[in-house]
Amino acid sequence: MGIVSAGGMVQSDIRSATEEHIAVFSSMEDVAPQIEALGERLVACIRSGGKVLFFGNGGSAADSQHLAAELVGRFVRERRGLPAIALTTDTSILTAVGNDYGFETIFARQIEALCGPQDIVVSISTSGNSPNVIAAIERAKEIGAFTAALTGKDGGRVKDMVDLCIRVPSSVTSRIQEAHIFIGHVLCDWVERSVVGDGDVRG
Ligand SMILES: O=C(CO)[C@@H](O)[C@H](O)[C@H](O)[C@H](O)COP(=O)(O)O
Ligand SMILES: [Zn+2]
């Protein structure tokens, strides 16, 4: 029996969470071709004047904001700001659109307003089944934007909707999210490296 912490978790629980995490990360090479494909797409999009739109719910909303900030601000290299936006941050838009048209529309409406055919949308959903995420992908497809998804579990409905799906091979939401932010960081590194090369690393 391990030491009981304030939250009631025992050391064996921490060990099994760690083992789960390592197992997921050990299988990450299986999705390397898709990560590479999305990296190349993002670079081509930004080079040709497009932008990246991220969205998702809960932890994936946090990931969206985190990744947009890496591109607009800095990942590790000094360079110009890169065009990215998270559709999860403007509480006036989220509450007005959610209140007036329904929660399912909170991302789709912003896609309609902000996304063009030259852009890439990156949807983040562990289940791949969140209705507001699905509605936004549908809208982005109508507009003609390139659609990508970070998912987990069985990939959900979004798996067969998007142009490029990166499915983390786990059924545990938290483990999937840990892999999503890792993939996001790899992509930011990829894009930044392509924009400025290897020099002038600050972070
Ligand atoms: O972070 C977590 C759980 O780790 C939660 O906030 C989680 O993101 C929320 O339950 C989301 O609504 C789940 O949505 P999705 O990943 O299935 O699209
Ligand atoms: Zn979480």
Automatic annotation (TrEMBL):
Binds 1 zinc ion per subunit. Pfam families: SIS_2. InterPro entries: GmhA/DiaA, Phosphoheptose_Isoase, SIS_dom, SIS_dom_sf, SIS_GmhA/DiaA_subfam. The keyword Transmembrane does not apply. Substrate binds at N57, G58, G59, E70, N99, D100, S125, T126, S127, S130, Q177. Pathway: Carbohydrate biosynthesis; D-glycero-D-manno-heptose 7-phosphate biosynthesis; D-glycero-alpha-D-manno-heptose 7-phosphate and D-glycero-beta-D-manno-heptose 7-phosphate from sedoheptulose 7-phosphate: step 1/1. It comes from the Bacteria. Its cofactor is Zn(2+). Keywords: Carbohydrate metabolism, Cytoplasm, Isomerase, Metal-binding, Zinc. GO terms for biological process: carbohydrate metabolic process; D-glycero-D-manno-heptose 7-phosphate biosynthetic process. GO terms for molecular function: carbohydrate derivative binding; D-sedoheptulose 7-phosphate isomerase activity; zinc ion binding. Residues 42-203 form the SIS domain. The keyword Cell membrane does not apply. It catalyses: 2 D-sedoheptulose 7-phosphate = D-glycero-alpha-D-manno-heptose 7-phosphate + D-glycero-beta-D-manno-heptose 7-phosphate. Zn(2+) binds at H66, E70, Q177, H185. It is found in: Cytoplasm. Its main location: cytoplasm. Its EC number is 5.3.1.28. The reaction produces a racemic mixture of D-glycero-alpha-D-manno-heptose 7-phosphate and D-glycero-beta-D-manno-heptose 7-phosphate. PANTHER family: DNAA INITIATOR-ASSOCIATING PROTEIN DIAA (PTHR30390:SF6), SEDOHEPTULOSE 7-PHOSPHATE ISOMERASE / DNAA INITIATOR-ASSOCIATING FACTOR FOR REPLICATION INITIATION (PTHR30390). Homotetramer. Catalyzes the isomerization of sedoheptulose 7-phosphate in D-glycero-D-manno-heptose 7-phosphate. Belongs to the SIS family. GmhA subfamily. This is Phosphoheptose isomerase. It comes from Methylocaldum marinum.
